[in-house]
Amino acid sequence: MISVVILGSGNVATHLFKAFNQAEDIVINQWYSRRITAIASYKNDVEIIDDLSLIKDADVYILAVSDDAISELSSQLPFENKLVLHTSGSVSVYDIDKKHKRGVFYPLQTFSKEAEIDFSTVPICIETIDKKSYPIIKNLALTIGSPTKRVNSDQRKVLHLAAVFVNNFTNQLYRIGHEITESQGAEFDLLKPLILETAKKVQDLSPFKAQTGPAKRHDKKTIRKHLKLLEDQHHEDIYQLLTTSIQHTHGRKKL
Amino acid sequence: MISVVILGSGNVATHLFKAFNQAEDIVINQWYSRRITAIASYKNDVEIIDDLSLIKDADVYILAVSDDAISELSSQLPFENKLVLHTSGSVSVYDIDKKHKRGVFYPLQTFSKEAEIDFSTVPICIETIDKKSYPIIKNLALTIGSPTKRVNSDQRKVLHLAAVFVNNFTNQLYRIGHEITESQGAEFDLLKPLILETAKKVQDLSPFKAQTGPAKRHDKKTIRKHLKLLEDQHHEDIYQLLTTSIQHTHGRKKL
């Protein structure tokens, strides 16, 4: 049995709470948030607090707070030499106050309040300073069914950066698809199977092999038609840059 | 029973052949390709030809050829007043020779030789000039289990353009994620669940609501870290442009 205290009230904190709460081998001793109203609806499931002086003993403290809050909150914790983890992809493990045993529990996934998460699809990237902390962090991930990967700081930061490309930027391309279709009387819904298939394809095939379309074919006629159809300069810039990028990858001349 | 002749040997032609071949209410009279060797491996399943003068009578002729070949091939067909469809997202239905009954059977999906296709996830966008052709085209799609949508030329072209954003450009972002991780000693495989979840999320949630990350949060510190980490000027340009795009969408100032 691993005992944890969760700190924070954002998406990651909330989804971790739900997963830990359902896991058999984890007990959540407390859930802390500075803004206790944000987690008040869970008060029948767990002890909620907004006062760090009330914090109880636990095996692991999880700082699922915003990047900027990690350092200060870790200093304010009224104990030392306990295992304290943050969940950020980009913050250094050394941002955690050195009075603690420090580590990172970075769930490489997108979390929204609105969407349920199946933690078996959430790789947990684990980073530790002392090796002895590793097994307990790994067990913590396993109890919620997540695959784990031990990474160093550089790898974690690169994964976080790459995640911005494949998640935030990709989602913005979906948004542009939405804008283009809806502004011109077509249905975005028709694109949803394509969106899903595009993501499924690279589960087995490399993105290099999966590529198709006018940019890769260097199909100037279609590219010209598309640029003409685009009404927003901003969309046009993105079209040009990504077309060039595809042609660069696939050994063609620039647009 | 609908009888068809398929013309072309590319990915769309091949996947349509396989789907029609399995469908109960369709008979494939012939499969034509200029390069008969490309389809020779199917000669036990269907009559293959490379000579248009041998073409047989059928209810529907499907020109699954490259955009540039549609017009000429349709003129060369040695008959008239039959239903002839092309499968392109961007070519005008009027590119088909006017001696035929003309229509479009545009499967809004990504096709690769390597990946099997489930046609129940392929919306068929149907365009016709004369209304009488519509029911047979719709039936053709239904026999392979595809949902259908009647569109006009403008809608089809806009869908094709949007498809480039959500498919080709998205796939290029996956490719960049691959380049960034592999060049810096991290595993692209760790990003695959995130890629899938990002696509799944917008099946129910709008891309606007699904957005997260440093650009949306206007998290300058993380954005600066990421730009510093990027080693390729080209990746940096894409990072900047899509960050600005997200901030534009979510009502923030420019980067």
UniProtKB/TrEMBL annotation, chains A, B:
* Residue ranges of every copy of the Pyrroline-5-carboxylate reductase catalytic N-terminal domain listed in the record: 4-85
Q: Which domain of life is it from?
A: Bacteria
Entries under Pfam families matching the protein = DUF2520, F420_oxidored
Instruction: Supply the InterPro entries for this chain.
Output: 6-PGluconate_DH-like_C_sf, DUF2520, NAD(P)-bd_dom_sf, P5C_Rdtase_cat_N, TM1727-like_C_sf
In this protein, which residues make up the domain named DUF2520?
122-245
**UniProt-recorded name of the protein:** F420-dependent NADP oxidoreductase
Species per Swiss-Prot/TrEMBL record: Flavivirga spongiicola
